[in-house]
Amino acid sequence: MSAVLQPSTSIEPMSEGDIAAVAQIERRIYAFPWTFGNFLDSLRAGYSCWICRDRERIVGYAVLMIAANEAHLLNLSIDVCFQRQGHGSRFLQYLVTAAREHGACVLFLEVRPSNEAGLGLYAKHGFRRVGVRRDYYPAPEGRENAVVLSLDL
Questions:
Q1: Is 53 exposed, middle or buried, given 0-12, 13-18 or 19+ CB atoms closer than 10 A?
Q2: pLDDT of 77 strictly over 70
Q3: What was the pLDDT predicted at 7?
Q4: Residue 15 belongs to a domain with what CATH number?
Q5: Which of 4, 41, 144, 152 is most buried by a 10 A CB count?
């Protein structure tokens, strides 16, 4: 399977009509998923919310908050059957550009230390570790720390 994205792939603003499909993907990926309401609140709060489509199917989504010359990537996810095909890398590049174009000087995100694929993706794109948030994520047996990463834009 090729890692090259097909021309049928597009990145578009998320709409309220996309949230049901996004929430369904979220539930497939995560043991502790965002809810429909979390995505709706993000849209209504004016966060930069995006979907990645392959033809008519949503294959991924992202939520980016930009304020005070900083951006915070709150969620970047690719549906399980579309992972390892380059979608996450292309999507992340798009989000970095969007943050820069909206005046952000730095992009922050949190990632689980157990998310090796995510850590690898972010390292590949130049993110560096700047801290740890203790007990940040819910986990099957309590809480899991978050690794805080940043990228100077």
A1: middle
A2: yes
A3: 58
A4: 3.40.630.30
A5: 144
122 carries an active-site annotation? yes
Q: How confident is the model at residue 36 (pLDDT cuts 50, 70, 90)?
A: very high
- The residue annotated as part of the active site, out of 47, 61, 122, 137, is 122
Does 1 map to a domain? Answer: no
Model confidence at 129: pLDDT above 80: yes
Q: Any residues with CB less than 8 A from the CB of 149 and at least 6 apart, and which? A: 108, 109, 110, 111, 122, 127, 128, 129, 130
Asked, for residue 54, whether it belongs to a domain, the answer is yes
141 is catalytic: no
Range of the domain at 29: 9-152
Structure tokens at 69: 């010359």
One of 47, 61, 110, 137 is an active-site residue; which one?
110
Kindly state whether residue 48 falls inside one of the protein's structural domains.
yes
* H/E segment holding residue 61: strand 57-67
